[in-house]
Input
Amino acid sequence: MSGLLVAEDLHKSFGPTAALDGASMSVAAGEIVAIMGPSGSGKSTMLHCLAGIIRPDAGKVSYRDQELSAMSDSRRSALRRGEFGFVFQFGQLVPELTCLENVALPLRLDGVRRKDAARRAAEWLDRLEIDDVAGKRPGEVSGGQGQRVAVARALVTGARVVFADEPTGALDSLNGERVMRLFTAAARESGAAVVLVTHEARVAAYSDREIVVRDGKALDLERAR
Ligand SMILES: Nc1ncnc2c1ncn2[C@@H]1O[C@H](COP(=O)(O)OP(=O)(O)OP(=O)(O)O)[C@@H](O)[C@H]1O
Output
């Protein structure tokens, strides 16, 4: 299998439960892939293995032909900080910081100067059509605006892959679609691949390809475009 990010024959059990049982999939550079499947089928486990958050019991995950489990912990964290971005369902923004400061945070942690980080963060807020929330704290914005702040924060560092677990799960359908439209447009513009877990067909419709996880195995459904 080839691709930017490749999972081969993954097995992962939690006690007696086999969450992944020989699952393989790959993601090409710049591609938007949706992982779908019934509740409890192993979608989040697959995402966490791909992102190097959990280590599979067997099988391997490679990023740019380098196996994640063979990397040192510091190399893996550097990869997660520098090349991967994350968008989760909720609870991901720092409540004490403004939305602009939340987006600027990964840049500040990378040593970018305050002024430059703020300027780049403001550009991303603008791209996601939420420049008006820059000075507000996460508790003062809507769920959809908060998710767009999270998308901006995931992309601001120039991430090559953004992992998103039910990014619209807490939103109504109109706001969910708006987040997906802006998220996928921003990812395409910056050339980032997106790996997205969802159980909603209309969210998956924004992807180039769907992977269905069932009984711990992954099935690749090529989307007719
Ligand atoms: N940390 C854990 N400890 C114990 N069991 C777990 C853990 N994480 C996942 N599981 C189990 O592994 C299986 C797959 O879980 P996973 O979260 O990957 O499924 P999912 O497809 O993402 O589900 P959902 O759509 O409901 O979020 C489930 O049976 C789940 O209960």
